[in-house]
Specification:
Length: 92
């Protein structure tokens, strides 16, 4: 998790803004710690995130994405795993 954070921070410092392509890996539950980390990351870097494409396959993931509506200046869209090509096209 923290290695990825370093990579994102490096990209932000080099480019100013980033576009995120997130694939949510299947697991049994979404724990509160992970959700809090994601929200804190988004809050900290919200002015640096241009848009986010999120790929998943569960109803709760759509709800998780809805939380990013708290950051209206970040364009965020949820895609089912079957729509991965569409997600790549959208993020570009």
């Amino acid at each position: 998790m923290f290695d990825n954070l370093y990579i994102l921070e490096k990209q932000i410092s080099e480019s100013g803004k980033i576009r995120l392509f997130l694939v949510i890996e299947p697991h049994k539950t979404m724990d509160a710690e992970s959700l809090l980390f994601d929200l804190n990351f988004t809050l900290t870097y919200s002015d640096k995130i241009e848009c986010m494409a999120v790929i998943g396959n569960k109803v709760w993931e759509k709800i998780w994405i809805a939380l990013f509506g708290l950051f209206p200046h970040i364009r965020t869209k949820y895609f089912d795993r079957s729509e991965i090509k569409a997600a790549w096209k959208w993020i570009q």
